[in-house]
Task: structure prediction
Amino acid sequence: MTVRGDDLDKSNLRSNIIEKLKTLSAAERKNIEQSLEENLLTSEIWKQSSVIGITISHGFEWNTKSIIEAAWQNGKKVCVPKCQPKERKMDFYLINNYDQLEVVYYNLQEPKLEETEKITKNNIDLLVVPGLLFDKQGYRIGFGGGYYDRFLTDFTNKKLSLAANMQVVDKLPAELFDVPVDDVITENGFIIQGGL
Result:
């Protein structure tokens, strides 16, 4: 499916894919999540990365908790984002367990600043970037806050996203400030091979 930039409104694309994701049965969702996790955890980039940046999933997002737990079991460091809504920016903080998280606005879980250590973006080896729709060049439509677009402008290490096949299209409308991810992993494997 090809999506033409001029005719499309990102908010329509967002709401359409959210509806599709919400209609998945529990079994379908579990199967996709297991495949995404397996494809990530067996990849070379995962094996080579010591510090993983990843969000704490909520709602209809693909579950990241088992990925976080696998990272801890593999001796990797995990850092999660803390958003600053006024500036629309975010920083990442290392967590060793879920007790270091607190529930903030929109029911998101974020690190407790007094119990965690901030990490500079250059020290994140692999950033798992959330999103709703992706194209085969790595461009994405996120949740609309712009936090990752700002964070990625000078992020130089590996960045990839996890997406079901239904979330991948040939082409999305991209703007000048959009930064593509290096790889998109679906239940069938890598869509973009960013040097892997």
